[in-house]
## 1
Amino acid sequence: MNAIEINELTKKYKGFTLDKISFTLPQGCVLGLIGENGAGKSTIIKTMLGITHSDRGSIKVLGTEMNGNANQGTVKNDIGVVLDDVGFPSMMRLPQIGKVLANSYNDWDGRLFEDYLKRFDLPKNKAFGDFSKGMKIRAGLAAALSHNAKLLILDEPTSGLDPLVRDELIDLLGDYTRDESHSILISSHIVSDLEKLCDYIAFLHKGKLMLCEEKDTLLERYGLLHTSPEKLAELDQSAIMGSKITNYGAEAIVDRQLVPSNFELSQIGIEDLFIFMAKERKEAQ
Amino acid sequence: MKGLLIKEWYSITGMSNFKMMLLFAVGVLGFGFLDNMRFMLLLLPLVAGIFPRSVLSCDENSKWQQFSLALPYSRSEIVSAKYIMTLVLCGCSALVSGIFYTVATSLKGDFDFHNLAFIVLLGLGTGLLIPSISTPIDLRFGTANGKILSLIWGGLLGGSGGLLMNWFGSDGVAKTSSSGITAYLPFIAAGVILLLYTFSWKLSVKIYEKREF
């Protein structure tokens, strides 16, 4: 079963359109939504959860159609969510938040929540509004992981966190996905975090999905070419995913299969691939 | 729904500690001034009716409205929890006003059951009037955009306060007789406000079903 199936999802705002987004997240996998600020990552997540209504398209989460479904509450028992601002009431303390959630989720594990609070070193007698950004995210994660969710949906959980906390978070999510029935959809503009964690990568740029593929396939398929502008011009243009010409030469992300073997290619990172592709798309526009 | 009700309760008691203390102090003070109970009797349900708006404003600031939609609840349940808690809060405040009236007039020896019923009913109606009007508007436009609404509120507060002040005599008992149409006016008023509250509840659910965050 797929954890998420999104088909032709469209949402129009004044000055922004989320344009026919389609992707699938197989159960047991991690999909990273990568895009610049305002690319539409949060809109996809909010639409999936029914926080925002879509204009067109279908969304299935854990086999349940979400669009226009008034009974999506049942499936939400199986979804752990950490939104950008987390969203716990600012005047409440964590034990109170725990009590609210214990009476909301069918399968709330109070002991597990307590364990996470200790593990994350979170204070119990402090109002949530007084927490730092990192503490808020950790509290949100503690809640999301304490009701035996089959799917985690995380919107920019690493932004605003220091590298140490980010690393800790990635490890924690890695532990979560050891269970094969657990899946994660995570959005971020910090690509290095997602590169460590994700099985699938989706690039989003200005409301459009540029690609959605397995991470390993992307890394195998594309390479970074350092050459002269003249030699780059000789290449089959369909092989070039994105290029940059400077005074010192040319750099391009190319499809390895479409490049002659005499060209020397180096390994690319997901971040390079995204930046080159986004720039190429921008110039084409 | 239980989780939502608990959240509303924590929100009210948590954010309004100071106001609660103030209310308590005013209540105690009012109890001491048995000759002028009007202010105290009206204040409790009036303030109780303002709490839900404060909670809504806090929900907006903390983005609870978004997070609550990720919880296993329907939009209708999220709105209903607010209305139920407001009803409980205003009902309790009206009852407390009734208890104050009973104790005070019993001490003075002029307790009147008819007046007690009026005080409780009018208290409940007074408390529910403001949230009946403000909640659908706040849910539609957000509390931050409700500046014009605040002016309407002021008018309503002043108007309803003035009317009720006029209703009660300076000795704190209602200027009504237990016979004739005037005997039923508070019941009719409370009934009309309860109807308005029910309509407001349904309207808010419809508004919230369409709301996007």
## 2
Amino acid sequence: MSGAAGRGPSPGDAIRVRIRLFAGYAEAAGRDALDVTLPAGAVAGDALALVRGQPWAARLPPSPAVAVNQRYAKPDAVLRDGDEVAIIPPVAGG
Amino acid sequence: MWAMSGWLTDRPIDVARLVAEVASAGAGGTVVFVGTVRRSEADGDVEAIEYSAYREMADAELGRIVDEARSQWPEARIALLHRTGLVPLGEASVAIATAAPHRAEAYAASRFLIEETKRRAPIWKKERLATGAARWVEGRPAGG
């Protein structure tokens, strides 16, 4: 049976992804994480597109920096079940 | 007691301790960079800066930056700490100590480390004003 515990998703299953928000984005959204479901084969850009549908996301730049599992990633990075995607506001460290 | 997670700390940075970490009999030159919270004319009544981070990724990315520096300057010893939490005017927000047999490598590694940290570390800052108000500081598009 697809999706049975311990075997992971089969091709064609949805994947669960956590999207994390920080700093000004988290403040605008009123939250610092969203748990979303995407189709298998979804890419980081798809997670971003989901977020763009929200009212606060009007402030997002055309190509925000994105990280997948704590590494910078391109929008075409393929996502897997359980991945963590972060939308990274312009940074101000150092 | 330090409260550190890898390269981040929520306590005041002990710069002398960082220098001690990179000291060795082989080190001819030690370079220390300290970034401090400053107030410019334009900033008005900033009293402190609150640093926040995507902690797990800041640790990972700073670790990668340090690895890259070690790879380019294999003889350099490196210590780096970045603050999170509230840092008052004049205090250190980041400190980097590099030590190498010759000063050229210590300087070069130090420069690389601060420039890459500024470019890549997922860390943000919010100015805390004397009025009690707070405002986000505009950052740089993250490069990575």
